[in-house]
């Protein structure tokens, strides 16, 4: 896969490309230089003698040849992507759009007079018009955008290397999409909005700084952004809030070619996805996850939904996003309690699918709680990869048969966890309830399917090492048991529980004995009293 730099004149494609290629140890190809070698003339001379059409023909041929070298860093001229043959050669490559404000571009052009023949005698005016003409094309072929206006060449090269170093996680579902996990991955947004005239940005006021960045990316893509402010957290996941969003989209004239972007934790992206799934019977949407919980669970997987008083996520739809952006930079303002809550879902997947997650937590619990640590980044990436594999095999949670457990395995710890959340009026964090629910499930599994006691104890040790609760005595068992029967994961009148026989050995048990459930809950309460 080639790394291709595109963008308007003066964006720094050549200088940045040379630096990126050197850092990555890859060959560098500048198409303007390739044209000069092929013709024995400078670019200015080619324009003068052969005209723009002649130049474009040579440029296009040189670009197609260069893109055949999958390991190269290739700098394309500003207008190269306007040629169909070049655009058709770009899929499968990493295409970085180096952007720049028109005023800054004009200043840069004035510093090198005579070197850009296409700009003529009015560089400022010509650059502005070229950028307007080409913006939609840049957005449609790029895979990420970097604004170079206030950055040095060194800084731009650093961003390009960083942003392209981690491959996305692929969700190979009915409508395949990518989850981009990394620092600065919001730079992926503008190309993902290509073709939309309007973008509805759903966010709480607490994330106005992220919403502004997303709005800027929408403008860069050529779309008009509209902001919809919603309450923070679970308070946004109501029918009233969804109806308000529908009304605003309708008033602004949103059509099926427009899209919705949900910004925030799992609650906001759940709700925004449901708005998109239900408006006009389904329009495109993007999730920009700003919490650990959202990144490893709620924002990925294609489930959308809202709460009603009788339970969590009882109303919803399967509606896959166009992409998920998990920009780790947005975690820096996240309260520690929210980091812990998100880790619960990742730890859960450590028990069901990837024990390396448990090893990472046990090796350094304090490091895991540092949102800037490489350890947390690896845990998040691993958790996303687990979910990608599971969801690809069972998008709608239908393929659990016999000993083969599909997407239902992701419900581990949720049967009691959701009941506790509802009992606590959703004031307890989701991850806190899931941690308790996983310990409960482990106690049930020990009694019912032979989960070794040391694995049960490991549940308590790993969850508690990052400050998550592992006991509960805040309600009567009979009240929680009633709520468990209302959970969306039950089928008919049967209660289904996801249990473990060992690490990674998942089984679904239908209607576990009531005495076993009660005994497992009493073990939770006993632990609470002992604590």
Characterise the protein shown here:
- The mean pLDDT is 91.
- Helices cover 49% and strands 16% of the residues.
- The strands form 4 sheets. The protein has a 7-stranded mixed beta sheet, with helices on both faces.
- The protein is elongated.
- Helix 11 packs across helix 12.
- The chain has 531 residues and is an alpha/beta fold.
- It has 21 helices and 16 strands.
- The protein has helices at 13-24, 31-39, 43-67, 84-87, 102-110, 123-141, 153-165, 189-192, 208-221, 239-251, 266-278, 292-298, 336-352, 355-363, 365-368, 374-393, 414-423, 430-448, 453-465, 477-486, 514-530, and strands at 3-6, 28-30, 73-75, 94-99, 144-147, 169-171, 177-182, 198-203, 224-229, 259-264, 284-289, 303-308, 311-318, 323-327, 496-502, 505-510.
Largest sheet: 7 strands, mixed
Low confidence ranges: none
User: Structural class of the helix and strand makeup?
Assistant: alpha/beta
Portion of residues in beta strands equals: 15-25%
């Amino acid at each position: 896969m080639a790394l291709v730099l595109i963008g308007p004149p003066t964006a720094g494609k050549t200088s940045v490309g040379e630096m990126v290629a050197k850092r990555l140890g890859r060959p560098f190809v500048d198409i303007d230089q390739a044209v000069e070698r092929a013709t024995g003339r400078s670019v200015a001379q080619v324009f003068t003698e052969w005209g723009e059409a002649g130049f474009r023909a040579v440029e296009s041929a040189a670009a197609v040849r260069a893109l055949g070298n999958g390991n190269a860093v290739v700098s394309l001229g500003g207008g190269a992507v306007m040629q169909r043959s070049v655009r058709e050669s770009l899929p499968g490559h990493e295409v970085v759009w180096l952007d720049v404000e028109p005023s800054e571009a004009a200043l840069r052009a004035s510093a090198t007079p005579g070197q850009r023949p296409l700009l003529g005698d009015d560089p400022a005016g010509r650059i502005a018009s070229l950028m307007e003409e080409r913006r939609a094309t840049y957005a449609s072929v790029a895979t990420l955008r970097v604004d170079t206006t206030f950055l040095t060449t060194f800084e731009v090269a650093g961003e390009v290397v960083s942003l392209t170093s981690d491959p996305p996680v692929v969700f190979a579902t009915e409508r395949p999409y990518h989850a981009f996990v990394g620092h600065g991955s919001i730079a992926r947004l503008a190309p993902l909005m290509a073709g939309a005239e309007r973008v509805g940005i759903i966010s709480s006021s607490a994330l106005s700084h992220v919403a502004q960045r997303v709005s800027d990316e929408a403008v860069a893509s050529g779309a008009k952004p509209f902001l919809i402010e919603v309450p923070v957290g679970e308070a946004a996941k109501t029918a009233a809030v969804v109806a308000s969003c529908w009304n605003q989209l309708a008033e602004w004239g949103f059509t099926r070619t427009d899209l919705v972007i949900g910004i925030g934790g799992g609650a906001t992206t759940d709700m925004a996805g449901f708005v998109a799934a239900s408006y006009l019977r389904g329009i495109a949407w993007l999730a920009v996850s700003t919490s650990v919980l959202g990144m490893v669970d709620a924002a990925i997987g294609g489930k959308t939904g809202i709460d009603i008083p009788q339970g969590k996520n009882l109303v919803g739809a399967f509606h896959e996003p166009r992409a998920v952006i998990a920009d780790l930079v947005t975690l820096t303002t996240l309260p520690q309690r929210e980091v812990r809550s998100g880790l619960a879902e990742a730890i859960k997947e450590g028990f069901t699918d990837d024990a390396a997650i448990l090893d990472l937590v046990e090796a350094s619990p304090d490091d895991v709680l540092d949102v800037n640590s490489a350890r947390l980044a690896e845990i998040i990436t691993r958790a996303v990869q687990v979910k990608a594999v599971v969801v690809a095999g069972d998008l709608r949670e239908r393929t659990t048969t016999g000993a083969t457990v599909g997407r239902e395995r992701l419900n581990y710890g949720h049967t009691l966890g959701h009941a506790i959340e509802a009992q606590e009026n959703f004031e307890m964090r989701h991850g806190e309830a899931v941690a308790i629910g996983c310990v409960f499930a482990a106690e049930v599994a020990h009694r019912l399917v032979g989960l070794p006691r040391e694995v049960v104890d490991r549940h308590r040790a790993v969850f508690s090492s990052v400050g998550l609760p592992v006991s509960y005595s805040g309600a009567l068992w009979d009240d929680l048991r009633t709520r468990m029967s209302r959970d969306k994961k039950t089928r008919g009148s049967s209660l289904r529980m996801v249990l473990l026989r060992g690490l990674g050995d998942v089984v679904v048990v239908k209607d576990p004995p009531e005495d076993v459930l009660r005994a497992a809950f009493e073990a939770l309460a006993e632990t609470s009293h002992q604590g």
